[in-house]
Amino acid sequence: MHPRWLIYLLLVMLTGCGSTARAVRLDTGRDAPFVFTPRSSHQSVEMTADEFKEAVEAVAHIVRPSSSPQEAARRLFEVESRSGSYLYEPNSRRVTPMGPGEHLEGELPTADVELTRAYLRWCERTARPGDCLRLLVEGPTVTGDGRYALSMALAQGVVLEEMMDAFKDMANPEAMLTTVLWTWTTYMILLAVPEPFSKGLAAAMTLTLIAYVGVDTFWNLIVGFKRLVEAADRATTFDELRTEGERYGKVMGRKAARAFAMLATAAIGNSAAGLAKQVPTFPGAAQAMVQAESQMGVRFAAIGGVESVAISAEAVTISLAPGAVAMTAGGSSAKALPTGAKAWGSFSGFKKAMGPAGAGKEWHHIVEQTPSNVNRFGAQAVHNTENIVPLDKGLHTRLSGLYSSIRRIITASGNLTVRQWLSTQSLEAQREFGLLAIENVTKGIW
Predict the structure, then answer these.
(1) In whole angstroms, what is the distance from residue 311 CA to residue 226 CA?
(2) d(Cα 24, Cα 26) in Å, to the nearest integer?
(3) Which of 54, 256, 64, 61 is nearest to 163 (CA)?
(4) In sequence order, what are the residues at sequence separation of 6 or more whose Cβ sits closer than 8 angstroms to the Cβ of residue 214?
(5) What is the pTM of this model?
(6) Which range, of 85-99, 178-192, 206-220, 245-259, averages the lowest pLDDT?
(7) What is the pLDDT of residues 3-34, one digit of tens each?
(8) Reduced to 3 DSSP states, what percent helix, strand and coil does the chain have, rounded to the nearest 5?
């Protein structure tokens, strides 16, 4: 069966089950998998344009753009090549096939040639003359994966401009942009086959993206990309690609687009473990941490331990390495599996090892570092990479004020502060409240 028909059939299956609530299956290789139902109170993590550009710029300075971004993205995600190799000369605009099976431009379909010329004119209009997205490295015209990459570039809109602004001080900002674009597109292509499955670095990206946008939104983005693939294959003009790209951009939205772009940048030349170390420093990481638990039953410390993620119309199945952290769905007193988080005997030891929280940020203990908590649970249960997260100073100050205040609506007491009321509860209950506090203070509910 032709791959296009496989995609079409999967679309019918997925859209037909659009009203079905998707469960999350957590498979740790021990006994039966846990089945977790995501909470419905989900909002995509929001980051400002300045936060996004600052994060992308910081990550971009520690990665190296590739002169062959499509091939580099294939190697990164272990995707096989599906086309020949061609050489494009920007100055003369000549396309020279590399290897056997040479094709002259005159032999190519007229529609493909015209679309390619329109693409090159678009590059000129955006002040990046030539093959600005490196779509013609492996073929004389914009076809196949190149069409998907172009559609994704057109879908990003303002976010694309924000990325270029973040890369402006680099030696070759255009090379950085195309490397991110091909990383992003190749990752989506990996998820656009029946049934979506990711492993290694791609699985870590999937887990993080779901934490940022939610299970249902992520699932809808996959369905939307499959439709984009179908439309891009049918398109005969640049304007048709633009229309489909802009339509997908609306499905994605700016919040998800920023999260995608940030993670695609961080993924370049990285590993699952390397990405896991960077994620807690990203803008919105605190809210994403909350939603990782509410949407998937997984703690952020599990990102580096995820082995694979499979997505169907009914469920998201997450396979975690032994020792990774997950939450069961067994009620409000959920228990944690053994954790692989790094821990210290004091907060000063943590700060010495981890360094500053970041510009404009402060380290925050989800379960507070009160003497009572340290005595009851042990120092390492409090001073660890799973419990201490970077927060904006303003948010950290508001949280501290909340814990010091008397809130009858929270504690049902007119005498106890939130901190006093919380101090008698279990570690799990304090953590659950701490995550909820971050979420509600961020949203202005508390």
Answers:
(1) 14
(2) 6
(3) 54
(4) 38, 42, 43, 44, 291, 295
(5) 0.70
(6) 85-99
(7) 443 443 344 334 444 445 578 888 877 777 77
(8) 55, 10, 35
Which two tokens mark 68?
């062959």
Tokens representing 86 are 């061609």
The one-letter amino acid at 98:
M
Helices (H) and strands (E) in the chain, counts: 19, 9
198 close to 206: Cβ distance less than 8 angstroms: yes
DSSP string, 98-156: ESSS---GGGS-HHHHHHHHHHHHHHHHTT--SSTT--SSSSSSS-THHHHHHHHHHHH
Report strand pairing: 23-27 vs 315-320.
Answer: parallel
Whether 93 has a pLDDT exceeding 70, the answer reads no
Alpha-carbon gap, residue 242 to 201, rounded angstroms: 30
Which H, E and C letters describe 290-358, residue by residue?
HHHHHHHCECHHHHHHEEEEEECCCEEEEEECCCCCEECCCCCCCCECCCCCCECCCHHHHHHHHCCCC
Biggest alpha carbon–alpha carbon distance for the chain:
84
pLDDT band at 329 (very low <50, low <70, confident <90, very high): very low
DSSP 185-216: HHHHHHTSSSSPEEEHHHHHHHHHHHHHH-HH
Cα–Cα nearest to 296, from 280, 311, 276: 311
Which candidate, 300, 291, 307, 231, places its Cα nearest to that of 256? 291
How many Å from the N-terminal Cα to the C-terminal Cα in the chain?
55
Asked if residue 195 has a cis previous peptide bond (ω within 30° of 0), the answer is: yes
* Dihedral in degrees, nearest 10, Cα atoms 219, 223, 228, 234: 170
pLDDT in tens, 134-181: 998 878 888 888 999 999 999 887 788 899 899 988 888 889 999 999
* Choice between 190 and 205, residue whose per-residue pLDDT is larger: 205
The residue type of 92 is S
Q: What pairing do the DSSP bridges indicate for beta strands 34-36 and 23-27?
A: antiparallel
